Amino acid sequence: MFGAIAHAYDLNNRLHSFGLDQWWRRRTVREVARRLGRTDLRGARVLDVACGTGDLSEAFAEAGAVVTGVDYTPRMLDLARHKAQRRAWRRGTCAPSFLHGDATDLDQPKRAYDAVTIAFGLRNVGDVAAAMGEFRRVLRPGGVLAVLEFDRPAFGPARWFHRVYTERIMPWTASWIARDRSGAYHYLPRSVDTFVGGEGIAAEAVRAGLHDPRVIRMTMGTCALVTARRASV
Description:
Layout: H1 2-5, H2 9-16, H3 20-35, E1 45-49, H4 55-62, E2 66-71, H5 74-86, E3 97-100, E4 113-119, H6 128-138, E5 139-150, H7 156-178, H8 184-193, H9 197-207, E6 211-218, E7 223-229
Parallel strand pairs: 1-2, 1-4, 2-3, 4-5
Antiparallel strand pairs: 5-7, 6-7
Helix pairs in contact: 3-4, 7-8
């Protein structure tokens, strides 16, 4: 399904988020640096899971991190590699590397990363608890998990508009732009409605053994950024 929409994935993200998806990712980069207690991310090792076409991976790489992006969909990874190769990287930064992988069974070694991130992908993982366990395993002591995910606004009028837009408008316009017949853009809003939301993600992180979860709601609650830390010892 994701392979079928990969060619138009970035365009649909920009159009249907009104460009806010990139701002949400930049906020994620800043928040990870803050929770690591760093003024910058130069040399930090970041694992970006469900990286898709690599937007968040590139945002971390642009901040100086050494980034590995992992995704389950080969077509997404092909596009991520192509985009990264075409970019002119600033001195002191390098392109992310991209690997095929499963969030619930990562090939990466334990305690290898300063940060693990996943943007708009956790709700598509079959076993969230297994994925959270893997995220904790590959984080170094004191490392940070950051989960960026869609959520549902709490304010009544905003919630009504959000529902109309995501359930009645976006699926049709996004499917038309992507020339998609897989039903991906009808599935995606349903996956948000049936997922646990920001507080639920924080609870899953705690159950996996992570600490000090924090939930930041953005754009009237349309999006939630959840961070948590692995204990220092």
